[in-house]
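Quick start: what a row looks like.
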Amino acid sequence: MRAVATIAVALLSIGVVTSVAGAQQPLPPKPDAYGGIDDRAALAKAMSHTHGSASDNDKRRYIAAKLVADAVKAGLNDPDSLQWDDLYTNESGIVVCAEYRARNVFNGMVRKYLSVTRSVASETTAAWNKNCSGKGFFSEKYVIGQW
């Protein structure tokens, strides 16, 4: 939940996300969790467009996936325990879906499903099914060092 809250606070601060499902009081992000203001501005720009050339879409997908991946890692209790199962986006980069495993506060490995869109960042099953499940999205595993 901390990862969702971390992502949501940053996206809320730049107006990309307008609400957070399942998060009552988001935790503040770490100061450098998003690589600085330029990256957050890039994410806002990337997620604000729905059309563009193939290279523009590639850039938007990369920027959105990279920032979500960095935010997930920064928001974990044990960032070194992070194991990515998948990271993918829709064609325009407006939806980012992440599947990962990490240690929780009780030192147990848990699997998380995260859906990030222009309007919400959520780890709920309903959001995952609506935005990510069964979609023909683009794999962005190269962003996290996996091919």
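That is the whole record. The beta strands are 83-89, 96-103, 109-116, 121-122, 138-139. Residues 15 and 44 are 7 Å apart (CA to CA).
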